[in-house]
Amino acid sequence: MTTTLGSFVLGTPDPPALADFYRALLGWQEVDREPAWVRLRAPGQERPGLSFQLETGHTAPVWPQRPGTQQMQAHLDLQVDDLEAETERARALGATLEEYQPQKDVRVLRDPHGHLFCLFVPGA
């Protein structure tokens, strides 16, 4: 038996809207869409996918992390060729750049529903 990653799932109060953001950011294809569930995948690949599940009580994590606050439990690392250009493109799509940036060659951003993600260049 082999275990493989089928999909990474983000909880959100609006799965279709958040899926639209990541579809535009990643250039991935939508393969399932319902009001409470949307799944994306990279063109030409079946797995892994990125899915969005309805969570009406979603609370975005605090960054940087502090004791007693909603902690980040996971985030996406997205490889890019041009850090500055892709940061600006993500912002134009609705992402926000975090004030605290722990590394010079990585950019920490939030998607429109508050999930943290990082853009990085190869070798970073």
UniProtKB/TrEMBL annotation:
SUPFAM superfamilies, per database record: Glyoxalase/Bleomycin resistance protein/Dihydroxybiphenyl dioxygenase (SSF54593)
Species of provenance: Streptomyces fagopyri
Chain ranges of the VOC domain: 4-124
Stored InterPro entries: Glyas_Bleomycin-R_OHBP_Dase, Glyoxalase_6, VOC_core
PANTHER family per the UniProt record, alphabetical: CONSERVED PROTEIN (PTHR35908:SF1), HYPOTHETICAL FUSION PROTEIN (PTHR35908)
Name of this chain's protein: VOC family protein
